[in-house]
Amino acid sequence: MAIYPEPLPPAPPRGRRRPSGSSVQRRQARLQPLHARADPPDTMAKKKDTTEAHTADEPRLSKHPRAQQQINKAKAWGGLALFLLVGFVSMQKGLPAFTVGLRALAAGMVGYVAAWAVALVVWRQVAINEVDALRARLRADADAAASDVPA
Q1: Which phi and psi (to 5°) does residue 72 adopt?
Q2: By the 8 A CB rule, do 83 and 107 touch?
Q3: pTM, whole model, 2 decimals?
Q4: In the 8-state DSSP scheme, what is residue 61?
Q5: pLDDT tens for each residue of 83-124
Q6: What is the C-alpha separation between 77 and 104, in angstroms, rounded?
Q7: 108: burial class by Cβ within 10 Å (0-12, 13-18, 19+)?
Q8: Are 127 and 59 in contact (CB under 8 A)?
Q9: What is the pLDDT, as a whole number, of residue 56?
Q10: CA-CA distance, 126 to 136, in Å (whole number)?
Q11: 79 in Cβ contact with 112 (< 8 Å)
Q12: Strand residue runs (E) in the chain
């Protein structure tokens, strides 16, 4: 059951009326099909084409499950550790509770970002070393298979 049995009438226009010429022009522009309208000037920055930027040889941390898990843990522990440390030190100095909370919150955010940056640097090196070790193992296996083939 509806509250209103029929739709409400449209609200009367508010404010000053616009000149009729501009409303006619707007109506004509609205009636044109989208493909016939002139494109607005392209003033926005172009996006870089990132499809070719990453090659198959380059390890991606976003695809590495262990890296993602440990980076997330590092961010959480870094933010929490700095939050607690700065909060404790601020309380020991006798600062008001609001100031303690504000400083601890800001320090927690800094710790979060710093831990993220450090974890990314470490995991990039780990991923590169894993790829190099895999290549060396595959090369050794290929050499061993090539030497086993009778001439």
Answers
A1: -65, -40
A2: yes
A3: 0.57
A4: G
A5: 999 999 999 999 999 999 999 999 999 999 999 999 999 999
A6: 14
A7: buried
A8: yes
A9: 62
A10: 15
A11: yes
A12: none
